């Protein structure tokens, strides 16, 4: 894993460095929130256009959109503290940047917490799974890669985070669909 982390970290020093730094920083948060809202609005708009002349109602479309947003919010509300306060202390794995496994210094300051699993990957995976959007799945993938490239996480941390997030996103979506009777 160290060799892969080192190669990705060295690659991050090139022309793509600003993207990886931005995706791995807290500055990306508000913009990614805007992207989530845009994806939901686009899906509602397209659903309404496709539903014209069909049995689907605006009420049903809006219920599905509300279910997706509620599921994403619940999944992140569970995923973030679960990873940060329960799983990271349980695994107590140091970050790559904390133990100096790379020859090239990481572009971001090293995080203070533990490494396993990645909360960024878990939260972005939870949102993508809850909203069921391929666009958000790609964004979650880029966020995960950025955390490895930035020297903050091992690849296994990202996979664990995505797994936790996807499980919570899918579970919360099923729960909210049932509560809101969307399908």
Walkthrough of the structure:
This protein has 183 residues and is mainly α. It has a single domain (2-180), classed as Vanadium-containing Chloroperoxidase, domain 1 (Up-down Bundle). 74% of the residues lie in helices and 0% in strands. The protein has helices spanning 2-11, 17-24, 28-51, 58-91, 96-99, 119-131, 134-149, 155-180. Helix 3 packs antiparallel against helix 4 and helix 6 (119-131) runs antiparallel to helix 7 (134-149). The protein is elongated and about 60 Å long.
In short:
With 183 residues, this protein is mostly helical. Helix content is 74%, strand content 0%.
Q: Report strand %.
A: under 5%
The helix/strand series, from N terminus to C terminus, equals: HHHHHHHH
Number of domain units: 1
Strands, count: 0
The rounded Rg comes to 18 Å
**Unreliable stretches:** none
- What structural category arises from helix and sheet content? mainly alpha
* CATH architecture level-2 label: Up-down Bundle
Number of helical segments with 4 or more residues: 8
The CATH topology turns out to be: Vanadium-containing Chloroperoxidase, domain 1
Overall helicity: over 70%
The average pLDDT is: 76
Biggest sheet architecture: none
Distance between the termini: 43 Å
Shape: elongated
Highest CATH level, the class? Mainly Alpha
